[in-house]
Amino acid sequence: MFIHLHTHSHYSLLDGLATIDHLVNGAVANGATALALTDHGVMSGAIEFYQKCHKAGIKPIIGVEAYVATGKLSEKNNKEKPYHLILLAETDAGYKNLLKLTSIANLQGFYYKPRMDWETLKKHSEGLIALTACLNGPLARHLKAKQNKQAEINLKILLDIFGANNLFLELQARNYPEQALVNLGLKKLAESYNLPLVITNDIHYIKAEDDQAQDILLCIQTKHKQADRDRMTYLGENLSMLSETDVLQAFPDGQVAIDNTAKIAERCNVKIELGVIQLPYYDLPEGVTTDDELKRLCLLGVKTRFGYDPDSIPTEIKTRLDYELDIIIKTGYAAYFLIVQDFVNWSKNNKIVVGPGRGSAAGSLVAYLTGITNIDPLKYDLLFERFLNPERISMPDIDLDFADTRREEVIRYVENKYGKDHVAQIITFGTMAARAAVRDVGRVLGYSYSYCDQVAKMIPMFTSLKEALETVDELKKLYQEDPEAQRLMDMAAKVEGLARHSSNTLCIQSKI
To answer: Is the pLDDT of residue 512 over 80?
Structure first.
């Protein structure tokens, strides 16, 4: 059984064409029992991948294609080309180490790419299996350049970090003339050091005919037109999800290396705990519970917001407050409100502009009384149930806006209060909508801006290209009669919905 262990999704931004659904469905169609995800320098798709693999009945192998600095992490040389290295989580400890390594790479080692170095890898190598990656790997790069001595030095470094049992030399079937030289060199090293070989295909898309769409994606990334020369391209290569038969055709003597993919898959058994709410400890005086403290702050808020003492609160306010507090306490979210009001009020006290509140949180009287929002839900008849529904309990979502120029101060405050290992930035992705996809693809194909703009404007806002072709007669006619428009829309449909860029929001939890 051949298992794909070197696989990119669209979370390898503007490089991987396949979505998680595409990858999982493709693996199932091939009869695979497992599949790895190894995006460039990030684990953004790991949870989605983990959940969808389990739903489809195949084993998820969580990994990353890491960028490894040729020197130390602190060194920043714009001529440096980091090595590529595939890291797979064999155990839960390995998964946690992958999280640490990618965090270090993105927060401390980022210089053009999220980098780690050999020293960092050695500290966090427990539970990991390493594959030597593509032609930019620590062995292949030097074998390709006939620098066999340096390749052997790097192999010894890898052996020192991972051990012979956790290191596999990676063969690929590329059409580059150097690949045959590299594969031969890897086989010799494997024989000399008694190390196992493994075959991968560096998946960037599912079907071979998707190579043009992936090439267009690369051009969007590198700001080139497809007709440009001397640009990055994988055209001529097959980076699709090959079957075992396809792999055997490329490597007639590769059955052992194919079998090793299944052996690695058998070894990788990671269990990720999901659905558990983890909040940091909110410091309170001895004997005071989070429920008590939230009630106390609400009563202070009644005095501040409405001018009423605890014994003279009007029925309307008291009834709504008791109702909200009852639900918040029963669902165990009192600490959540305390944490949020703390850094919101700290911000206000330090003259950092905070938004008045938006989204469903504006319907909470408790949020208004504790200073989280500045909108009176009673005055505007806003519903609390849109925020926290007692019949469908889920974690409340409070959207907060801070002044751009001082947002970092709020993050630093939260880090100092709860510890840096309890605070994270959650990545969010902007995806290519139909209109944007048409404009991006049109530029790459060399079509005029006015033509692409004309086609894009035929697509109704918030409508997919497929839906627009079914419902907009003018667009449908253009597609049927104009070969250029047909190519434009066919390619745009392939990149529509893919992740294009990322941004961050703040997360606080008990331990990261």
So the answer is: no
